[in-house]
Amino acid sequence: MGEHYFAARPGAASRRRTVDLVLPDLHLRLETDSGTFSPDRVDAGTRVLLETVPAPPQAGDLLDLGCGYGPIALTLASRSPQASVWGVDVNRRALELAESNATTAGLDNVRFKPADELDPALRFAAIWSNPPIRIGKAALHDLLLAWLPRLSPGGLAHLVVQKHLGSDSLQRWLNGQGFPTERIASRSAYRVLRVTSRTEGHTR
User: Fold this and answer.
1) Nearest Cα to 51, choosing from 188, 196, 179?
2) What is the b/e burial string over 171-198, where b = at least 16 CB atoms within 10 angstroms of the residue's CB?
3) What confidence tier does 10 reach under pLDDT thresholds 50, 70, 90?
4) Bridge partners of 113?
5) Rounded CA separation 97/57 (Å)
6) Where are the beta strands (DSSP E) in 122-180?
């Protein structure tokens, strides 16, 4: 696949374009670029997630983990205008696009940062993510173990994962790590997993 979209500074030559995210409650026109995740259209998994998850909390800090050029974070910001929404990614090109897309959409309750620059004290009422499965199982597990413990008590994460890329095994693994996880939707070979904040006393 050439250089991966999860490089911090993609070397692919810039080729800007726009994609549309049309949902029942909003329509966003998003600028994308080469070297970012799914630059030619909003990813099908992202769409499944956004069309099936329950409404996000209306207050508190909300996180889009692996935000890319911003479709999930901007949807969170639109649906929860009183919340503080954060999008994190390693891809600096994607983060710049996400900031620009937020400005274009008039959403001022969302901020985008490299993952390692977000305040470590922040705790999240919700995490939504189309996680970067292709970074490999070990790296994915490390990523989730870094962020899921930052759910507030009673907080929920919603993850979308393709069945053939390991959604069922990921669900079993999360349960084994002390994060109660259940499938809440299944469509077009995608699974949406709801993950509850870690059970008390589980320190693995």
Assistant:
1) 188
2) bebbeebbbebeeebeeeebbbbbbbbb
3) low
4) 88
5) 25
6) 124-129, 151-162
Pinpoint the alpha helices (H) of 22-67. 44-52
Express each pLDDT in 132-187 by its tens digit.
Answer: 888 888 999 999 999 999 999 999 999 999 888 788 999 999 999 999 999 999 99
Sheet harboring 151-162: ordered strands across?
Answer: 110-114, 84-89, 61-65, 124-129, 151-162, 190-196, 181-187
pTM of the predicted structure, to 2 decimals: 0.91
Structural domains of the chain, ranges and CATH numbers in brackets: 17-196 (3.40.50.150)
Q: Residue 27, SS3?
A: strand
Which residues 6+ apart lie within 8 Å of 72 measured at CB?
Answer: 46, 49, 50, 64, 87, 128, 129, 130
